[in-house]
Amino acid sequence: MADLKFGINLLPHQWQDVVRVEELGYDSAWTSEHIFFYFPTFDVLTALAAMAAKTERITLGTAVMLLPLRPAALAAKEIASVDIISEGRLILGIGVGGEYPKEFEAVGVPVKERGARTTEALEVIKKLYTEDQVTFDGRFTKLDGVTLMPKPKQPGGPPMWVAGRSEAAMKRAGRLADGYMPYLFSPDRFRDGLAKTREYAEKAGRDPGQITGAIYQFVAIADTYEKAKPIAAKELQMRYQQPFENLVDRYAVMGNADDCAGRLAEYADAGVEHFILVPLASSYSDYMTHVETYASDIIPKLRK
Predict the structure, then answer these.
(1) Which CATH number is 252's domain given?
(2) CB hemisphere CA count around 137 (13 angstroms)
(3) How many CA atoms does the CB half-sphere of 299 hold within 13 Å?
(4) Which among 133, 152, 153 has a CA at the least distance from the CA of 144?
(5) Do the bridges between strand 134-137 and strand 142-146 make them parallel or antiparallel, or are there none, so unpaired?
(6) Which of 138, 159, 221, 304 has its CA 20 to 30 A from that of 153?
(7) Which residues pair with 215 in a beta bridge?
(8) What are the φ/ψ torsions at residue 258 (nearest 5 degrees)?
(9) How confident is the prediction along the chain (304 residues), in pLDDT tens digits per residue?
(10) Alpha-carbon distances of 157 from 57, 123, 128, 145, 223, rounded to whole Å
(11) Distance in angstroms (rounded) separating the CA atoms of residues 12 and 283
(12) How many domains does the chain have?
């Protein structure tokens, strides 16, 4: 497990904590976005640009960027800008959203079109990053001989990892992306999902070995498994607006440091190469305490 990578997902208002995340030796720092949601959020690319200015080494990622909420050409411009500002340290985690339909209504995007818009946007962005004088006649995007300047720092653009739990997300990742990054998966389901994604890549004539296996993984650390479980259930219910008491055992990593390391090892055995750890703390003030504990007590057990 020596090649495993570990990142931390920061809440938007924690963007300055990225300095400490980098000091602790994490490989990556991530944050998410919504226009409107159940709790406060930032624009994800603005937050990452600010994080880039405060850091030197750490990879910065979107977990996730809601790609269908933006015109594809605008998204391409914004992503390229942040990749340049960060000196090529960006990974683009992409999701279709849909948990909060009012944000789709607000920008005039029918929520039922989110999958098709995301797939087309991935195609458009790739063309804009690799070609000049791009012409594209799609369902949602029309381009007539345009060239994006400047192009991203990373040749061909930042790696794109598709998030999601559906078969459509696996197909999208296999055909068009560089990684698959689901959430709320058990180790067995992750293994199956990554295998399907790589099958789709092979069918598309791509190298399946080039698909990175990543997971957006909720973690609740406490003295015991029993103490961690209600904290995890409460936090996930707030985030997803549904009961989680009967789901956390399957999907969350919980317990003391040994419990958490053991469960994360199961995910690594299932094919996870890059963990985006999402602390489920009982209060925001405890969030960075958990981040410190992961770095000192959990990750070293997995890097051995």
Answers:
(1) 3.20.20.30
(2) 0
(3) 21
(4) 133
(5) antiparallel
(6) 138
(7) 275
(8) -65, -40
(9) 559 999 999 998 999 999 999 999 999 999 999 999 998 999 999 999 999 999 999 999 999 999 999 999 999 999 999 999 999 999 999 999 999 999 999 999 999 999 999 999 999 999 999 999 999 999 999 999 999 999 999 999 999 999 999 999 999 999 999 999 999 999 999 999 999 999 999 999 999 999 999 999 999 999 999 999 999 999 999 999 999 999 999 999 999 999 999 999 999 999 999 999 999 998 888 999 999 999 999 999 999 7
(10) 18, 12, 9, 20, 43
(11) 15
(12) 1
Residues in the chain, total: 304
- Pick the closest to residue 152 from 58, 85, 54, 73 (CA basis): 85
Buried residues in 141-172 as b, exposed as e (16+ CB within 10 A)? bebeeeebeebbbbeebbbbbbbbeeeebbbb
Question: Which domain does 256 fall in, by range?
Answer: 5-303
Q: Which residue has the tokens 């960006």?
A: 90
> Which residue is listed with tokens 């933006």?
70
- Retrieve residue 152's tokens: 């991203």
Q: State which amino acid sits at residue 90.
A: L
Instruction: Write phi, then psi, for 179 (nearest 5 degrees).
Output: -160, 160
Q: Any idea what the Cα angle at residue 65 is, between residues 198 and 139, rounded to 5°?
A: 75
Any residues with CB less than 8 A from the CB of 79 and at least 6 apart, and which?
A: 45, 65, 90, 92, 125, 152, 157, 158
What CA–CA distance (Å, rounded) separates 155 from 233?
42
